[in-house]
């Protein structure tokens, strides 16, 4: 939350004690050695963290005195000052910073500071460019600053607006996060019985999203509020995590369904073999038939020929009910064979992409 600026700071004032007669009305120029012998404004940078006057090859200070006593005092300074930035819309943010100048000792009753030509007092290099920001505009302001122990002081402001370039963050943050979310949707088209493939894909996307979030936060100040990039990354992380939970639900429901079908097959399994002591009935015999035969002994059973004849008669009588039941069982088995994906997977193929697209529309319309 700071910025570094190199500038030429030029002071103009009139000191009649320095006036001198001149027939040509030409000024006289001196270096920094004369500065210590005359009065100069004691201007300092408010909220400055560090600053220095360049001294290569000599002190970059110039003093120019005109015959009527006007003085131009110029120096080349590099200053690093504090800027209270708001990262709630990062990286789609616009920051406004200011460099503040003020007299250290003289109040507004002793020294009046003002911009000589207003906004025209600022001359910037047209070739200035920053890697992350676009400098939109510079402007000047001035106001009074009050200190309870010393009084009122004139303060000058150099204000400038910075708009962050988004393309870098699109390539490094938003695009990879979007790809990870889309990659997690691939599991919806993988067979639900391919457990290693779907689990490994889900875990990989979750870990990759965690790495992206950690990398972004490592380069950011430790702020106590949520940033715009945090919203996007954490919502993307939730989508990736939900895709893993979706397969957990699909796997569990598939296991429950297979267990029920196994019990159903065991219930409808039939056996037509006839033991010596008892007669095993298939599922086509009614309960009354089974009860009527339960009390029969070995001596009461019919001969083998009669037995086969009765079986043939009974099968002929129940042929119609047999065919209808077989059709129902065949359709059920065919449906189970053709159903390779769970219903949750089918719905997720539409719900997940549709919801994520809706989130992107809302996100970019709000923050851009």
CATH architecture of the largest domain: Distorted Sandwich
Give the helices and strands as they follow along the chain.
EEEEEEEEEHHHHHHH
| Unreliable stretches covering 5 or more consecutive residues | 271-302, 304-320, 333-340
The largest sheet is: 5 strands, antiparallel
* Structural class determined from secondary elements: alpha+beta
If you consult CATH, what is the topology of the largest domain? Acetylcholine Binding Protein, Chain: A
Q: How helical, in percent, are the residues? A: 40-55%
> Proportion of β residues?
15-25%
Give the N-to-C terminal Cα separation: 22 Å
For the record, the CATH class of the largest domain is: Mainly Beta
Q: How many distinct helices?
A: 7
Tell how many strands the DSSP assignment holds: 9
Radius of gyration: 44 Å
Number of domains: 2
- The quaternary state of the protein chains shown equals single chain
Can you tell me the overall shape? Answer: rod-shaped
Give the rounded overall mean pLDDT: 83
Can you tell me the CATH superfamily of the largest domain? Neurotransmitter-gated ion-channel ligand-binding domain
Can you describe this structure?
The protein folds into 2 domains: 2-164, Acetylcholine Binding Protein, Chain: A (Distorted Sandwich), CATH 2.70.170; 168-267 and 353-367, Neurotransmitter-gated ion-channel transmembrane domain (Methane Monooxygenase Hydroxylase, Chain G, domain 1, Up-down Bundle), CATH 1.20.58.390. By secondary structure, it is of the alpha+beta class. The radius of gyration is 44 Å and the shape is rod-shaped. It has helices at 167-184, 195-218, 228-268, 287-294, 304-317, 319-338, 343-367; strands spanning 2-14, 28-30, 43-46, 48-53, 61-65, 70-82, 94-103, 133-147, 151-164. The strands form 2 sheets. Strands 1, 2, 4, 5 and 6 form a 5-stranded antiparallel beta sheet that branches.
């Amino acid at each position: 939350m700071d910025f570094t600026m190199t500038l030429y700071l030029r002071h103009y004032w009139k000191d009649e004690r320095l006036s001198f007669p001149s027939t040509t009305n030409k000024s006289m120029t001196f270096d920094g050695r004369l500065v210590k012998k005359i009065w100069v404004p004691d201007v300092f940078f408010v909220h400055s963290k560090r600053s220095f006057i360049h001294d290569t090859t000599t002190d970059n200070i110039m003093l120019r005195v005109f015959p009527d006593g006007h003085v131009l005092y110029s120096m080349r300074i590099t200053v690093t000052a504090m800027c209270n930035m708001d990262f709630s819309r990062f990286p789609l943010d616009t920051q406004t910073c200011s460099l503040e100048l003020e007299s250290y000792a003289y109040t507004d009753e002793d020294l009046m500071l003002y911009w000589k030509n207003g906004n025209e007092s600022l001359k910037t290099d047209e070739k200035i460019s920053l890697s992350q920001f676009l400098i939109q505009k510079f402007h000047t302001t001035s106001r009074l600053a009050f200190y309870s122990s010393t009084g009122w002081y004139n303060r000058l402001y150099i204000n400038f607006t910075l708009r962050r370039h988004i393309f870098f963050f699109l390539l490094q943050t938003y695009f990879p996060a979007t790809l990870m979310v889309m990659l997690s949707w691939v599991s919806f088209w993988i067979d639900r019985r391919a457990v290693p493939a779907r689990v490994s894909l889900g875990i990989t996307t979750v870990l990759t999203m965690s790495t992206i979030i950690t990398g972004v936060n490592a380069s950011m100040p430790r702020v106590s509020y949520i940033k715009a990039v945090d919203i996007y990354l954490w919502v993307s992380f939730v989508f990736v995590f939900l895709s893993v939970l979706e397969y957990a639900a699909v796997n569990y429901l598939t296991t429950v369904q297979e267990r029920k079908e196994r019990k159903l097959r065991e219930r409808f399994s039939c056996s037509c073999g006839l033991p010596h002591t008892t007669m095993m009935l298939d599922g086509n015999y009614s309960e009354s038939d089974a009860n009527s035969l339960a009390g029969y002994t070995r001596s009461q059973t019919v001969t083998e020929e009669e037995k086969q004849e009765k079986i043939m008669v009974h099968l002929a009588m129940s042929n119609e009910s047999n065919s209808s039941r077989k059709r129902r069982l065949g359709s059920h088995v065919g449906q189970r064979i053709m159903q390779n994906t769970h219903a949750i997977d089918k719905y997720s193929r539409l719900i997940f992409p549709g919801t994520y697209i809706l989130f992107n529309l809302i996100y970019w319309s709000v923050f851009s």
